[in-house]
Amino acid sequence: MIGIGVTTYKREEIFQKTIEAIRKFTEMDYTLYVARDTDEDRRGVAKRKNECLHHLKDCDYIFLFDDDCHPKKKGWEKFVIDASVKTKCQHFIYNKPPFCNIDNIKFVDDYILECFDASGGVLMFYTKEAIQKVGGFYTGYELYGFEHIGHSMRIKRAQLTPDWFVSVSGLSDFIHSYDYDVPKFFTENSCIEKNQKWELTQKNKDICNSEDLEIYRPIIY
Fold it and tell me: Residue 184 belongs to what domain range?
């Protein structure tokens, strides 16, 4: 069984397209959980992703989507799981140049692992073992920004990935991300006001840089 979590906030039309795409293109049996942030109950990215992890923690493989990222053809989940099994990489983040830059490339089995110098958080993949060893997102962050980077860094320190921010070459054939594939979407169409987004990102960057080296964090939401 695989688990699919979707976090969403005030983007109903895009969110519905994501759900439709997941239902259309996912062939394996799956559990779907939606964590919806609201103005009345604003918990932010880290806690909403933890909410997904809590409800999907018994699944063998977990995919966390932002509401503006979705599969675009069948076979997407099998492609990622097969890559994880054969490369023994237990965590992938979907990255794509030029949004992030490739820092290193590793050839493992028949796969090319693209290791980036930074990371987006539009789609994150985990094995059950990764979540059991590392737990959830650190909840000391503000509402938005860098929380996924800290999570991936802890997984690397747990020696569950061969580098810091790893994606698998070819994933872009299966996944559509508005941030990566639609010009200016990331800067012009965020559900968070631009100035607030900048302020939150700067605060969370400092938190990420100063976060201690404790690898396991409980799943709190």
Answer: 2-210
Asked whether residue 164 is domain-assigned, the answer is: yes
pTM of the predicted model as reported, rounded to 2 decimal places: 0.94
Spacing of C-alpha 25 from chain mean position: 19
pLDDT digits (tens, 9 = 90+) for 85-136: 999 999 999 999 988 999 999 999 999 999 999 999 999 999 999 999 999 9
Digit-coded pLDDT (tens) for 20-53: 999 999 999 999 999 999 999 999 999 999 999 9
- In this structure, is residue 197 part of a structural domain? yes
